Automatic annotation (TrEMBL), chains A, B:
Gene3D superfamilies referenced in this protein's UniProt entry, alphabetically: Acyl-CoA dehydrogenase/oxidase, N-terminal domain, Butyryl-CoA Dehydrogenase, subunit A, domain 2, Butyryl-CoA Dehydrogenase, subunit A, domain 3
Entry's family note: Belongs to the acyl-CoA dehydrogenase family.
This protein's UniProt keywords: FAD, Flavoprotein
Organism: Rhodoferax lithotrophicus
Superkingdom assignment: Bacteria
Name of the protein in its database record: 3-methylmercaptopropionyl-CoA dehydrogenase
Cofactor list: FAD
Positions of the Acyl-CoA dehydrogenase/oxidase C-terminal domain: 276-442
Record-annotated Acyl-CoA oxidase/dehydrogenase middle domain positions: 162-266
Domain named Acyl-CoA dehydrogenase/oxidase N-terminal: residues: 39-157
Family annotation (Pfam families): Acyl-CoA_dh_1, Acyl-CoA_dh_M, Acyl-CoA_dh_N
Length: 569, 569
């Protein structure tokens, strides 16, 4: 059974809960974007994903990418699917029309990538970096580079990579050693080894555009000495640039994506942006990139839920408690409380995660397109604070929750046949890349909350709390959590000024406390959505996961607060 | 880097903390078993495991078991290692001397199997079921069957399997359909399909002895209609018995062990025990089997910890908080709080788990060998209540904790090279087999705690609490937990009498609350162990994980209590 996007869920959250069209039409760029257009785009996306991309997931895992003689062969069907994908205009969805794009909001691209990741995480790695590369080239490259590469990357005719990590420089990019030596024609020769480069070699597109972090000869050590360069696989004259794939990694999962070791052997590149500002050029796309990893988590968890839910509605084992004892027939697995709990808990994370992730995507659209500065500043605050939380908590849940879904299958979950173990293996990488989840926690607390004395986060949460109408249990729970979290943040700010190590000890717990609080808020949004529809928040579809949230997820909040408080002086 | 047993740790817990030799010498069978003998056996075991078994783990995963023409070829080196293993007498360690065994306590076997699982989970699956089969044959088979098979199984010259699961009968063995038709010579013809049968076909031993759950023609439906049969791969006259391997499963991990689909095609078998009492014959070995799965969890987590700890002491990334800012050199990963936390937390589970698991193994020795009934009854109580907790909580921690250890490696953890991802994949199965962890939780609460009104568990915990001397924080924390847990148990007993579904909704949380409480007790045992040695409980080796327990593990207790309490009327 392959993943199939449940379009009614996407529409409900995007249009009913979040009122996305109304929020987008405020932006001059998107005055034409109405609910009908959004529905149409997502329906088409769902069709493409379900029919073309999802069926390739199993082969992608089992055959995987093959490496021989410096070349990577992608699994059967991957190339044809990619050609159909870019020719249908999907990579260009949220690129500007003047660059060959469709000029649609980023939030649609976000939903598209959630579906794609759910359907086939490995395949989706290939186009997954395109939009970031597009923004990077658009905002930092010279006109000459733009003329040569911007449209090719916008449309996805050529795929792109980010070459950051080196064997000794992972979380710590300041240690990067790849060297860039200026040439008389204004280009640079890049030399060094990059590792963990997704899709740096493959047969999906005619050319590959590498964005490479490297160090100029006179650069200082550390992160400030890094510059960014663009190096294509094939030069404008058709010659092969010596940006060479030495091997691909054997990994736990994600076999449909080639993870390359790249040797740059005096490869020709051109600088993108200012010397020494290479990290800045990449950091502008960091929120979007992290959001997309969070969406991978949400998508993969939905894929796992779909499989487990279908199995639990077919498989019978043992009599469920409360069932008539005279009946000899075993009950459906879904009737057993332990299984129901697993399924409903994942839905609470998935649906609540969507509310938060799509809100973040909308805020990114506002940052890009709102004419006034105040909404942009508020949007920046949201994205800066919420994105690391989404990335860490929802990728963790993807792994943990898909593993819980595996339990629904019993022994059948551990064998390949049902495909659930592939999701567990594939999802695991999302806790590591784009900044490990531990780095996200430090990013949230140490780099974002503490520096302004907690003002940003406190303001954000108080505003959410103040805006809530209604006094049901869920809303009250959220408001109480906000009060506790704001007070705790104040204490942490004070204590951290005296003890430099303290925030590093509690960063993970702090991120979890914020995640659970945001999840509570997301569910109040779902619950308070007025619909005349019987499929709305009062239906079992939405009531069950909300109950799971109250029973099994929100109690973590008090535990995290207790753990942090015990560390305070 | 391969796993190496840390013998000093085993000795400390077994001899210093648990005073195992003194407890064993009370038993007439083991009056000769002293600390020197135990040390000697474990040192030899450690040497064998480290030198012979651990180096085969990687190949076991990468080459795996191969199936062709009904036969299974085990990975290179597996057969030689197994021949050396049984010829050195290891499978016979805890079997009776009159059966060809060494007559040593089961607790030594328990430690041996923890080491073996840590070193090479896949290989260890082969001999892992031997002792259970030995006990089953010894206590239930006819003299004729014993004469033919007992010594072969005791010594491990022939390997054994348990054939329980069928495609439609997993957790629910009452649905088993395999049929046993009596023959005129007193044997039976077995026909049916069994799945998930570990090691039912291989090249490790000259014969394989299958213990098969099947149904006599006149048997009633459900679990009471099941009988147990012994069916060898090769008949006494050398003929091939039609107990045939149809294929082996492609799995997430554990590739070194063949998981077989078996077709019994009128295979000849002989009944073991009484007709209709097949499950009883198997249930006598259930506590031992579950304990061994818990030990797999502990072992695998230790193997993961060893890898992560070694890596964290070599790899440098970023400056740790509090370090001199003028230094340009990156800090060792182990100096970063987030990494220290991961490592110390796993050690808290490993070391505390050992205290509990070895205690359980000692109690199993007491059940078997104590001449008086009162100690046997107490031991039965411990094993019955603690074993499902150990199985569920420590296999979950093996998976979760080895995944956390993977975070220490960053991107390097996701690739095969370092071997950590293999542990994550291998360990996952332990949450499923030998009764899924959800079944363990139901076993604890619904089948064991509630039926006697909570008396057994309350008595066990109160005795542990009463016996504690000293009033340090750790001891007080444990005593408070016991009080809370006993009160909660009383309320659950009352409420469950009125609401049949209730215990099924809270079983998982209840098991976790008990697990965390037992872990707290285990660490008080470690802490209160008097040693003149600088490597004792006051050393950093033991202080760090105890601090991790207090900071990050015990807070879960209050959360679980909150979750359960919210369900109470």
């Amino acid at each position: 059974m392959n993943y199939q996007p449940t379009l009614s869920d996407f529409h409900f959250i995007l249009h009913e809960v979040l009122q996305a069209p109304a929020r987008l039409q405020v932006l001059p760029t998107f005055t034409e974007v109405d609910a009908d257009l959004m529905r149409q785009v997502l329906d088409e996306a769902g069709k493409f994903v379900g029919e073309v991309i999802a069926p390739l997931s199993r082969t992608g895992d089992e055959v995987g990418c093959q490496f021989a003689n410096g070349q990577v062969t992608t699994p059967p069907g991957f190339k044809e699917a990619y050609q159909a994908f870019w020719q249908a205009g999907w990579p260009a969805l949220a690129c500007a029309p003047e660059d060959g794009g469709q000029g649609l909001p980023g939030v649609l691209e976000a939903v598209l990538y959630e579906m794609l990741s759910a359907a086939n995480h490995g395949w989706t790695m290939a186009p997954g970096l395109l939009h970031g590369a597009y923004e990077c080239i658009k905002h930092h490259a010279s006109d000459e580079l733009k003329a040569r590469y911007l449209e090719k990357v916008a449309t996805g005719e050529w795929l792109a990579t980010m070459c950051l990590t080196e064997p000794h420089a992972g979380s710590d990019l300041g240690l990067v050693r790849t060297r860039a030596v200026p040439q008389t024609d204004g280009s640079y020769h890049l030399s060094g080894t990059k590792i963990f480069i997704s899709g740096a070699e493959h047969d999906l597109s005619d050319n590959i555009i590498h964005l490479v972090l490297a160090r100029l000869p006179d650069a200082p050590p550390g992160p400030k000495g890094l510059s960014l360069f663009l190096a294509p696989k094939y030069m404008p004259n058709g010659a092969r640039n010596p940006a060479l794939c030495e091997r691909i990694e054997e990994k736990m999962g994600l076999h449909g994506s080639a993870t390359c070791v790249m040797r740059f052997d005096e490869a020709t590149g051109w600088i993108v942006g200012t010397p020494g500002r290479g990290l800045n050029a990449m950091f502008v796309m960091m929120n979007a990139a992290r959001l997309h990893v969070a969406l991978q988590g949400i998508g993969l968890l939905d894929a796992a839920w779909q499989k487990a839910h279908a199995y639990a509605q077919e498989r019978r084992q043992m009599r469920a408690p409360g069932r008539d004892k005279s009946s000899m027939e075993a009950s459906l697995i879904i009737e057993h409380p332990a299984m129901r709990r697993i399924l409903d808990t994942q839905r609470a994370w998935i649906d609540g995660g969507r509310v938060l992730a799509y809100t973040t995507a909308l805020e990114l659209d506002i940052i890009k397109h709102h004419p006034e500065s105040e909404p942009r500043i508020r949007a920046e605050r949201w994205c800066s604070l919420v994105t690391p939380v989404l990335k860490a908590a929802w990728t963790e849940q993807a792994f943990k929750g898909s593993s819980e879904c595996m339990q629904v299958f019993g022994g059948h979950g551990y064998v390949r046949e049902w495909g659930i173990e592939q999701i567990v293996r594939d999802s695991r990488v999302s806790m590591i890349y784009e900044g490990t989840n531990e780095i996200q926690a430090i990013d949230l607390l140490v780099r974002k909350v503490l520096p302004d004395g907690g003002a940003g986060l406190t303001t954000l949460l108080q505003e959410l709390s103040d805006k809530l109408v209604g006094t049901d249990v869920a809303a009250e729970t959220f408001k109480t959590q906000v009060t506790v979290l704001c007070a705790l943040t104040g204490k942490l700010v004070q204590a951290s000024a005296l003890d430099q190590q303290l925030p590093y000890w509690v960063a993970d717990d702090y991120l979890r406390a914020v995640a659970v609080t945001l999840l509570a808020w997301a569910w109040v949004q779902i619950r308070q959505t007025p619909t005349g529809d019987t499929s709305g928040p009062e239906s079992a579809r939405w009531q069950h996961p909300e109950a799971a949230l109250q029973h099994w997820i929100l109690p973590e909040f008090a535990m995290r607060v207790q753990i942090i408080s015990a560390r305070l002086p």
